[in-house]
Amino acid sequence: MLRFVNICLVLGLVALAYVIYQVKYEARGLDTEIGSLGKQIDEERDAIAVLRAEWSLLNRPDRIERLAQKYLKLGPAKPAQLVTLDTVSDRDFDRTRLEAAAPVAAPDPDAKASKTAGKPPATVANVPAADQPPASAPWPEAKVVRPVEASAQ
Fold first, then answer.
1. CA–CA dist 53, 35 (Å, integer)
2. pTM
3. Residue 132 per-residue DSSP state
4. Can you tell me the distance from the alpha carbon of 92 to that of 24, in angstroms, rounded to the nearest whole number?
5. Calpha distance 23→48 (Å, rounded)
6. Those residues with Cβ within 8 angstroms of residue 98's Cβ, 6 or more apart along the chain or in another chain
7. DSSP characters for 37-49?
8. C-beta of residue 136 within 8 angstroms of C-beta of residue 101
9. What are the backbone dihedrals phi and psi of residue 63, each rounded to the nearest 5 degrees, phi first?
C-alpha cells in the first residue's frame, strides 16, 4: 500500500512539473508579446507626434490665408450679405438648392441680356424636380402642397 501511495505521489509530482513547465513558457511568450506591443505603442506615439507636427504646420494661419487668397478669390463680406436668423425663410433654402443642383450655363454673347439672366425661372422653383433629392444636398427635399391648386381641383 505504501508503494502505491509513493507511485501516485511521484506521478502527481511529474504532472505538476509538466504543468509548471508549460505555464513558465506561456508566461515567457506573453512577456515577449508585451515587449513587442510596447514597441508598437512607442512607434504609434512617434507617428502621432509626427502627424501632429504636420497638422500644426499645415494649419498655420498665414499658410491658410495665402491658399485662400490664391484659390478661393474671396472678398470681404458686405453688410447686405449678413442676415439674422429671423429674416431667413424656407424660400431662401429652395433658391440655394436650385442654384446648387443646376449648373450655371455660360451666357450667349448674341443673346439679349435681361434682368433675370443667371436666375432659374419661377416655374422651376414650384415644380419638384424628382422624388429623390440631389446627391449634393445634405437635407431631404420637401414636398410642397399649394392650397390654391389643391382647392381648385
1. 27
2. 0.41
3. S
4. 73
5. 37
6. 120, 124, 125
7. HHHHHHHHHHHHH
8. yes
9. -70, -45
Looking up cell 433629392 gives 133
Mind listing the pLDDT tens digit for each residue in 65-82? 899 889 988 888 888 888
> pLDDT tens digits, residue range 136-153?
555 556 565 555 544 444
Alpha-carbon dihedral sign for residues 19, 25, 28, 32: negative
Cell digits of residue 26? 506561456
Dihedral Cα 42, 48, 53, 59, nearest 10 deg: -170
Contact 121, 107 (CB under 8 A): no
Residue identified by cell 512577456 is: 31
Provide the residue type at 101 as one letter. Answer: A
